[in-house]
Structure formats: structure tokens, C-alpha cells
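Final report, closing paragraph on structural work. Over the funding period we assembled a curated collection of sequence-structure pairs, and we close with a single example.
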Amino acid sequence: MTVKPVQPNWTIQKASDEGSSTPLIARLMIGVLGLRDQVFDRAHRDTFDTPYEFTLKSLFSARDSMRQLANVWQEHERAVATGQIARSDRHGIIRVDATVDRELGQEAEAFINAAARCAKKGMQDIAALLGADIGFLFQKQPAFEAGLERLRQSDPALADYVAQARTRWSESLQAARNAVEHNGWTLPAVRYSKTPEGIRAAEPVIEGKPATQFASFVFDRLACFVEEVTAHLLARKLPAHLVLSEVPRNRRPADKPERFKLSLATGGLPPWSLLFHPESFEDS
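Its predicted structure, as stored:
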């Protein structure tokens, strides 16, 4: 008898340099997927995993663009301020030997599009799968108010959270995305001026904020939105004897700082409640 071992047709590929010690990985991947396992059996996990994978890919793409936007701007600002690439000639004309307008514009648009995909497509699909309609968040004010009132009847906590998200950040993101998509908006060019110390570069603005600040702020709010809305909706579907509790920040292990843990509904830890907060993702 000749035995031929089966050769597995697998590919092992490194995805990133991040691991469980990174809050984004610990909370949005390990934490949320662990919670998913309590709601979906193996046969039905793909119904959740497919839209959630899209959401995370869009979120991480937004983060990549946010970081590259910041890196390009900071290096250009430094090179201008130190006189490496900018000077004023004897006629008072400012001369800049390098431009970053195109690269900044590409990264800004990539960030806006990825963040909008995450919020509008990804999170809307996840919410629908878990029994909530948040599509009105991305509609004009009359439709938003009508949808908010409908949601308030079935899930007041989520309705309050969505209302805060609208005014605090998602409206600005949606306005930026609509400007790119429908109005041909592009990031304004960098402007330069003379100061007593030399030449100064003025950072382009998105929705009233310096571009890097806009991207950092929106990304942080979006990461909180993905985690908190998903956790809230999954928690509603937990077995009756379980609740979702929040682990205090100072008690989260450094090697896997998950935010949530399961607890017994009777005699266990207090259940976590969805509330909008101003803290950053790292501080929540």
C-alpha cells in the first residue's frame, strides 16, 4: 500500500505588523469577533463577517490615508520652515522648490472616500443585519428627523447616539464626501507667507479644519462609532443570561486591551450602556 500525504493548498501571508496589544486590533477585531461568536453559530457567521470585513477594510484604509496625509504635511512644513526648500528672493518673491499639493489632495480624497464607505455602506449594512435602520443618518434633515423618531421607538439609546454622531462629526464627513463626489471638490493648494522667522506654509482646510486635524478627528470618531454601535447591536442579541460589561481602562491587560467582556445577567457585572462620549478611542 502506498500512502500519499495530502498537500494542503494554503497560503500564509502577513497582513500587518500589528497584534493584540494594539487597541484597534484588540477591540475591533478580537473583541467584536468574540462577541459575534455568542450571537452567530459557525454556519451563519459569514452573514456578519462579510459586511464587518468591508467596514474594517474601509476603516484601516482611512487610517492609512490619514497617516500618510500627516506625514507628507509635517515633512513639507518642516522643510519650508527650516529654509530647506523655501526662501524669499531680493525682490520679496517667495520661491518654493517642491510642491505637495497633488499628494496631499490624493490622500485627503482617499481618506474622505474610505471613511464615508466605512460609515455609510459598512455600518449601515451591519446595523441592518442586526435589526436596526440607521440609513437616515446620511440623509437630509427632514428624512433624518423622521428616521430618528422611528428608531427612538425601538432603541432610544441608539437613537440618542446617532443624533449626537450626526452633529458632532458625521455631517462634516458627509458634506466633505458630497463635495468630492458631486461638486468636484479638491483640497486647496498650500499657501505660503513671509514671517520674521522665515517662510511659513499654511495647511489646507477641510470643512473648516486643517486637513490633518479633520482626518484625525473624523477617524477617531469613526473608530468609536464602529466599535460602540456594533457592540450595542450584538449585545441586544445575546442569550438572556448574558450581558455585555465594560472593563475599566486600568484593568485591561497590556497584551490584549479589550474593552468589553461578557458577564452574567444575574449576579454579574453591571451591563454597559451605549452613550455618546467626547473621549478619544484610545481613552474610552
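Residues 23-31+44-228 form one domain. The mean pLDDT is 93. We thank the funder for supporting this effort.
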